Amino acid sequence: MVALQEFIPLNPITAFTGPSVARVEDWEELLLSRVNANKEKIKYVKVESISMMGLYVILMAREECMSRIKEVVVDKVKLGFQGMIGNKGSVMIRFRYFSTSFCLLNAHLSHGQNNFEERFGQLRTLYNSALESGIYAIPVKEHDRVFILGDLNFRISLEGDKCRQLCVPERVEELREFDQFWLNYDKVMDQDDDPDLEEAKITFLPTYKYNIGSSVLDTSGKNRPPAWCDRIMWVGKGEKRIVCEKYASVPEVSYSDHKPLYGVFEVETMEEDGKRKDEVAKSLITSISEERSSMSESMSPDRKLATALTMGPNEEFLNKQQ
Question: How far is C-alpha 266 from the chain's CA centre?
Fold first, then answer.
């Protein structure tokens, strides 16, 4: 999975038109060519993709795994300007791998140093949203494995100068104590329908905000404090269903004011044993039939009549009994 934010210039026109087909195709061609340039010569193919304004997400899979991927659905949720504009929101892909359901959300939440409660509210909205699929909807929270990632825009609760002083590798652990997300998560996300989010330990420097073309923290007039805006989080039902093996930024990439982020995960999936399922179903049907037969033989005539009526007699049967 690759997720992008602001992959097109945002302006009044693109706010309503979104990215062009050519733009999306160019990105997909580029991403697939890079993924397939691996030493093992493993071939990856596109499963599905979706975009909304500056948001884009693509799911790719090994070619031999495609037969295991079913029920693919894409959707989007707009959160900008009271839900009318997609400059903030999420693009989503859901699918089933064997018998395990996945939902992948690439999100861009509200900006601002102190707007963390609004961002938590947006996370709640996304987690409780549903993907439209024909005549029915598939709630995000009902999936077995949910990944929420992107520019979540959570900041560091420190003044700019103090925050910059701690932006060195040897002080990351100290800086992490002021991470706005985990500092407020338990206090704000306390409703029954809130996601039980997890994240790997952050060991890298903040991913925002840098002078474009360098790894120098923002020196513009706005002088924005550094932050871990870009995150990868997940919800997995059961203990250790999702294990993060690697969580890191790529500071060498400097074409944006954000540093890209990546994660490597081991995810437990379930495979349905069709043969065993049929055997259990047949066994249950046989047991129920035998139990009903046994009950019927031991019933009095009046009891049999009451049972027949309960099971739904027709009018002709009732007339005969009268």
Answer: 16
